[in-house]
Amino acid sequence: MRVNHVGEVCAQALYQGQALTARNPANRQALERAAAEEQDHLAWSEERIRELGGRLSLLNPLWYAGAFALGAAAGALGDRWNLAFLAETEHQVEEHLSGHLARLAPSDHKTRAIIEAMRADEARHRASAVALGAAQMPQPAQLAMRAMAKLMTTLAYRV
Ligand SMILES: [Fe+2]
Ligand SMILES: [Fe+2]
User: Fold this and answer.
1) How far is the CA of 36 from the centre of ligand 2 (A)?
2) Quick one: which ligand is closest to 38's CA?
3) Tens-of-pLDDT digits for all 159 residues of the chain?
4) How far is Cα 74 from Cα 68, in angstroms, rounded to an integer?
5) Residue 84 in 3-state DSSP?
6) In the chain, what are the domain boundaries?
7) Could you tell me the pTM of the whole model?
8) 2-158 has which CATH code?
């Protein structure tokens, strides 16, 4: 759940960075709407961590800063690439959450409900980015994003 929370910290930062640099008002509005849902995710996962007696990642400020810079950079490339980055991020988050659901204890209904709700939102965020004209992320960029996500989830799992 700490890893999921880090993901949501990054989602906050990404969306804020992207909304800052998005050019088209409709896109900016969609980014802001999604960002509001990401705020819910952040709150849900933090609350669940507290209930389970866990702690948040110590590296959260670092995650935030890195993701903000990435979001702003993606935004600076123009809306089509901004949305492409967003759609691919949401796609990878969906996959990560599905993996977590598969490993989750079947008796942990509360965590399951939270993750399922988040996954449904992320799927909608991806669909709306595609509907707004996201470009298709080139394979090497997808792989680079996967490598970064892997590093992030491994680190956040421990620290
Ligand atoms: Fe989220
Ligand atoms: Fe999302």
Assistant:
1) 10
2) 1
3) 999 999 999 988 888 888 887 778 888 888 888 888 999 999 999 999 999 999 999 999 999 998 888 888 888 888 888 889 889 999 999 999 999 999 999 999 999 999 999 999 999 999 999 998 989 888 888 888 888 888 888 988 888
4) 10
5) helix
6) 2-158
7) 0.89
8) 1.20.1260.10
